[in-house]
Fold:
Amino acid sequence: MDFQKSSDNKRITIYDIAKEAGVSASTVSRVLTNNANVRKEKKDKIQNIIDKYDFKPNALAKGLSDTKSKIIGIIAADVRNPYYAEVFVACESAAREAGYTVLLCNSLGMVEQESLHLQMLQQQSVDAIIQLGGRVDDLVSDKDYVGKVARITGTIPVVVTGKLDGTSCYRVQIDAKKAMDLLMSHLIGLGHKRIALVGGRKNVTSTYEKYKQYLKVLHDHQIEFQEEFFVEGGYNYQTGYEGMNKLIDRHIKPTAVIAINDFSAAGIVRSITEHGYRIPQDISVVSYDNTYIATLLIPTLTSVDYDYKTFGRKLVQAAINAAEDEEVPIQQLVTPTLVIRESSGPAAD
Amino acid sequence: MDFQKSSDNKRITIYDIAKEAGVSASTVSRVLTNNANVRKEKKDKIQNIIDKYDFKPNALAKGLSDTKSKIIGIIAADVRNPYYAEVFVACESAAREAGYTVLLCNSLGMVEQESLHLQMLQQQSVDAIIQLGGRVDDLVSDKDYVGKVARITGTIPVVVTGKLDGTSCYRVQIDAKKAMDLLMSHLIGLGHKRIALVGGRKNVTSTYEKYKQYLKVLHDHQIEFQEEFFVEGGYNYQTGYEGMNKLIDRHIKPTAVIAINDFSAAGIVRSITEHGYRIPQDISVVSYDNTYIATLLIPTLTSVDYDYKTFGRKLVQAAINAAEDEEVPIQQLVTPTLVIRESSGPAAD
DNA sequence: GTGAAAGCGCTAACAA
DNA sequence: TTGTTAGCGCTTTCAC
Structure:
């Protein structure tokens, strides 16, 4: 067996198959799409030739002719963040099962990239677009972006994990209120009253909702809200680290900390450890996303899980249904669950 | 401002532009591709109309007609692994700069998926394929897969991060020998002699090469190789954890451990910590990949970095050059560097 | 049941 | 400089 680079291996087409089978291209197309009757005898013959050459129809041509590319474009904030990686992989699997392919683009924190990606996906004639994070996380939707998306939704359905006021995007969101409830009940059940919330920005919808719910739960339990216990910041290691340092340095030590995600939790763990406190004996740490980071740290993190498989399936389902003009709910919620690990325990004192 | 879903927003084409401008479609095409002369006056008029409708040419049609899709297909083992995520993002950026789009598929450990993805990418008429990990990591290439790929390379260039014997794939690899040298010099320089190598399988090329080099360096320094110090395993947290447990439980405590990647390093750190040893005072831990995991752990990990940006650029460059029939070296090496952090220190005793 | 022909939206060779 | 024409590879009427 010898595999040589057969230099100009002209791609085989439906016509080549047709000629060899002694039929017309239409007939070959019929057995390919399998949506018209072809005499069994011919059908078998054609199929054999197709198999023999391992022929696969050109998706571009197919897409051009029936104006369906069977591709779903996905714009993610950053797949290097395991949260997005999990969601993306879940979407990819769900899409594949439904016979669709996914095209991934990352905006990497450059919001202007999102517009460009939108444009590119449009050019590629994707059948639907799913946007994971980025501008759709904004509490107040960017006007410019809304305009761009609104323009697109006329032709291509767009599904987002957040929202985009003024557009007809479909929304599949994580139930942020419930996510906060899970953490708060867990902590309050362990006797915590001095609970800090570290990381996240209030101009991000999901964070804002968590914050609101945090206040509400405190209030429901007659625990007074302490301003200093909410440390706004970002969503990465560094901001978690700095946020926690700030708290401890100011001598306002909480007995429990809710991190906005696993990354910031890692920074928080570092800060606490550096200050000589133990987790969870002195301070409990809990977080959101339940990415593998939660299992890598010492101690392992109690974290809120989203059932990524279901999340991805809902996103893709919405995208495909919308693309195929079927009924799609404007908004769907994904219910989070709590995974308890080593980082949370009874309140100190 | 009111954005309504203008239900059947027929996609605008080059003909619509042409009609409105009172010219032929070819002329519009000319200003679009900008590779033929059009009288400035007309050109401006056409451009205005294009801008007015924010018209973007259909990439499918374009790809069909000039048989170049400007898409690079990427098959990754699993983007949830930050190593692949880093490489992918680097490829995506490099591709975008060169005017290409990338299509990502993950095989998620299911080798049969790789063949299917290959097929799918072929159907999408991608201009080139980049495969990151998976079967191209095998020390002995899978015969079946080799056949499939060899068939494809006739039409579509394939670039891999490993190798695929018997095919004409282009190879862009990390210099595994050098990567091991960096770690070994570092450790030996710190006085370590009892150095264990935990994780990885010898049927994976890069691991095999590291193993060989490990033996060589030991030999060069007249350090006797101890069989038990090489603990074969996988590439994740669990295998790192179990591998290290095995070492310690057998009372063959090394003074330094080389983890096959950051994931297994995390497991190793856990095992060491659980056994009551300190890092690096009792045991140093170093690893490969330098993903963000290395900075999240306590202690932070000394790890071998690959300069992902360059890695991605080389992969994409090779892919594009090959697609455009330019000269491409069959094999290229990426030179790793060492990032020293908290997890490594002078040998105990 | 099957083939001929038109068309999907674009580019490029050829005339004019 | 510009328009006409012929594809790119496939699907889908419309006749037969």
Observations:
- The longest strand of chain A covers residues 71-76.
- Chain A has 13 helices and twelve strands.
- Residues 11, 13-15, 25-26, 28-30, 32-33, 36, 57-58, 60-66 of chain A lie near DNA strand D (CB under 10 Å from a C1').
- Chain A touches chain B through 64 residues (CB under 8 Å).
